[in-house]
Amino acid sequence: MTAPLDVSGSAAEAHPESVLAGAGKAIQGRSLTRIAWMRLRRDKVALAGGGVVVLLILVAIFSTPIIAAFGHPPLEFHQDQIDPATLLPKGSFGGMSAEYLLGVEPVNGRDIFSRIVAGAWISLLIGFLATVVSVIIGTVLGVIAGYFGGWVDQVIGRLMDVFLAFPLLVFAIALAGVIPDQGFGLEGNGLRIAMLIFIIGFFSWPSIGRIVRGQTLSLREREFVDAAKSLGARHGYIIFREVLPNLMAPILVYATLLIPTNILFEASLSFLGVGINPPTPTWGGMLSEAVRFYTLPHFVIFPGLAIFITVLAFNLFGDGLRDAFDPRAH
Amino acid sequence: MSENEPLLSVQNMEKHFPVTKGLFKRQVGAVKAVDGISFEVFKGETLGLVGESGCGKSTTGRLVTRLLEPTAGKIVFEGEDISHMSQGRLRPLRRDMQMIFQDPYSSLNPRHTVGAIVGAPFRIQGVKTENGVKKAVQDILELVGLSPEHYNRYPHEFSGGQRQRIGIARTLALKPKLIIADEPVSALDVSIQAQVVNLLEDLQKELDLTYVVIAHDLSVVRHISDRVAVMYLGKIVEIADRKRLYSAPMHPYTNALMSAVPVPDPKVRRDRERIRLKGDVPSPLNPPPACRFHTRCWKAQEICKKVEPPLAEMVGGHQVACHFPENAPEVPTAESAAKTG
Ligand SMILES: Nc1ncnc2c1ncn2[C@@H]1O[C@H](COP(=O)(O)OP(=O)(O)OP(=O)(O)O)[C@@H](O)[C@H]1O
Ligand code: SF4
Ligand SMILES: [Mg+2]
Predict the structure, then answer these.
(1) I need a labelling partner for A17 at 20 to 30 A (CA). Which of A24, A27, A313, B183 fits?
(2) pLDDT for A285
(3) Strand, helix or coil at B337?
(4) Which of B124, B159, B164 to mutate to test the interface with A (most CBs of A within 10 A)?
């Protein structure tokens, strides 16, 4: 994890008079969020990352019509594209053509383009929702630990240490391996997706939790908290009105940076065969099938590239967000 | 409440912060930030509270406003003992007692607009206003010399002096009786300190306020105070009317502080040599026994290390805690006689 974000916003306070002068007669003040947004708009790299993220989200949401328009159903076999002798795609470059944009898989001839697009949906869904789970757990526990301190902080702090020291992948593999076929009114891969979201989210909360705790700890000492207390504010008011608004920026930044980590996590589990079960297409699952056909580079490259671009785009955007909220982090 | 009953009365108030060590938080000592102080504040007056950094001024302010709970002693506000009152029972009393904070950069939430900050007291205390909170807030902004148009601005768009005015506006919202101002100008440029002090004075006249103004040197509180208390290492060493204190300071420490105050009159300046204190302020973790000032006092005798001088009244409300006070009226020592003569 990178250097913790400073929430003091003092960078924006450097030249109060000039800001005021620049604002002229404008009655509406410029919030720190708006100033950060103005900075973000000048950061071309972050904007490019953000653009790719938006594109990926659109692809994931509209995966069904996109596949209908440009490909074939992701589970459909196309034995006619396969050379029965070698079981490899007939055409050159892995069978790439106008019909099969990214070629076909060996053995059964499934459309790689469609499977990548369908995989985007599962990757992003799990990446986002697992992050939501960890942000909720991390924020609640981090704020409680930082605000109340004392033994509460001790207990939660130890809990974070335990989670951070855990051989996470091994444990997740074990846990994901024993997911039943049905439960909680769900079955098959629906249940597996839900379980993966909770497993990944549950194990990645301490990174957010630590940041939130540290920030809360320093916010609690700020005089505006004392000011609220001396006005008779209750804990709830102080937490929700004084502390949380100052935590939104760091939470947003680190959530953005956690999404790619969680996407990689899901890909790893699917790669290892304990994530989403085949034949449902996932990037990790495709990669794991592809390694058996290392003579066919396109089969490895496209899912690999999909993961790479997604992770990179989220990271670039997240870094840009952090810089926009805290330009001194350089 | 009768006329001469104090608005605030502090009796033998103590605050010891425990110092813990190791895994099991064993207490190994205590920072005696405030170590048994007593004073009274009367309606309409301004009490200056002066002392070097770390002597417990802020802790005193935070005890009186009950942001902290005293380890011992009593705090009586408007006749009610609030020393250990629960936060719930304190809530209604908090309307009458507000605090201005030292750091105008830390005392305003950067995520809130000026309107939200100054309007917070109404919201927290559930106070209804005649023409709505916005109107009330804008009136207060005008009162402290800001424009009502600043309502939707954010704190980072203001200078230090303007921010401190926003902080002052917030304390005025509920029309308090007592305001504790913790070094209200020490974070500000010297050029705007006077403006803010003048504002505090004007507001006092207009709104019938009572102040405790904390400062780390005697010059800041000189014009605003009616009485001044001098603190050293968690104790009050001298307390007197402003006039008395500035013209005839008794405690050696007050004299030392006084000699650091710039004097405009060159004639007086020549007559008065600057007293340089030796050494640093000792740690409040382990304060010197008996008179705490004896490690730095040029008048210290054996008795000063053995017997703690009580804060005793000398003349007309002038209290001092010293075995050998300067400018003492009765039984003048050779030294003090030479000085006054
Ligand atoms: N919460 C706390 N825990 C432990 N020690 C504290 C705490 N608050 C203050 N102290 C200590 O108590 C002593 C008095 O602190 P205080 O802030 O009251 O001083 P001050 O006179 O206001 O100084 P300054 O002029 O620097 O504001 C200091 O030694 C300080 O380190
Ligand atoms: S009691 Fe003694 S040491 Fe203390 S201030 Fe007076 S003369 Fe100095
Ligand atoms: Mg202080």
Answers:
(1) B183
(2) 81
(3) helix
(4) B124
Beta carbons of A28 and B152 less than 8 Å apart: yes
Which position has the higher pLDDT, A294 or B298?
B298
Domains contained in chain B, number: 1
Give alpha helix (H) positions in chain A: 16-23, 32-41, 44-61, 63-70, 112-148, 150-165, 168-177, 188-220, 223-230, 235-237, 244-271, 283-290, 297-325
> d(Cα B171, Cα B279) in Å, to the nearest integer?
39
What distance in Å separates the CA atoms of residue A59 and residue A56, rounded to the nearest whole number? 5
Cis preceding linkage at A279, omega within 30: yes
| Candidate from B153, B154, B170 with C-beta closest to A227 | B170
A137, B58, B213, B299 from A223: Cα distances, Å:
27, 12, 17, 40
Alpha-carbon dihedral of residues B317, B322, B324, B328, nearest 10 degrees? Answer: -10
Top mean pLDDT of A23-37, A261-275, B250-264, B292-306 is at B292-306
Q: Does residue B305 line the site of ligand 2, with CB under 6 A?
A: no
Instruction: Answer whether residue B252 is part of any domain.
Output: yes
The pLDDT tens digits for A297-308 are: 777 888 888 889
Q: Assign 3-state DSSP to chain B and report helix, strand, coil percentages, each to 5.
A: 35, 25, 40
Q: Which has the higher per-residue pLDDT, A172 or A53? A: A53
Residue of A29, A233, A246 lying closest to B124 (CB–CB): A233
Q: Enumerate residues 6+ apart whose C-beta is below 8 A from A242.
A: A219, A224, A225, A228, A233, B109
Helix (H, G, I), strand (E, B) or coil at A70: helix
Q: Determine how many CB atoms are found less than 10 A away from the CB of residue A185.
A: 8
How many angstroms separate the CA atoms of A328 and A74, rounded?
47
Whether the per-residue pLDDT at B264 is higher than 70: the answer is no
**What's the whole-number mean pLDDT along residues B14-27?**
82
Nearest C-alpha in B relative to A235:
B87
Task: For residue A35, give the chain B residue with the closest CA.
Answer: B156
Domains, chain A:
56-329 (1.10.3720.10)
CA distances from A303 to A317, B94, B144 (A): 21, 63, 64
B206 in a structural domain: yes
Does residue B334 carry a pLDDT above 50?
Answer: no
Domain hosting residue B74, numbered range: 8-96+176-290
CB-based contact A274:A176 (threshold 8 Å): yes
Q: How far is B113 from chain A (nearest CA, A)?
A: 8
Whether the predicted pLDDT of A182 surpasses 80: no
Q: Are A47 and A320 in contact (CB under 8 A)?
A: yes
Q: How confident is the model at residue B329 (pLDDT cuts 50, 70, 90)?
A: low
Query: What CATH number has the domain bearing residue B64?
Result: 3.40.50.300
Q: Could B152 and A226 be called an inter-chain contact, meaning their C-beta atoms sit closer than 8 Å?
A: no
With a 6 Å cutoff on the Cβ, whether B297 touches ligand 2 is yes
What confidence tens digit (pLDDT) does each residue in B29-83 have? 889 999 999 999 999 999 999 998 889 999 999 999 999 999 999 999 999 999 9
SS3 category, B60: helix
Mean pLDDT of A215-229: 93
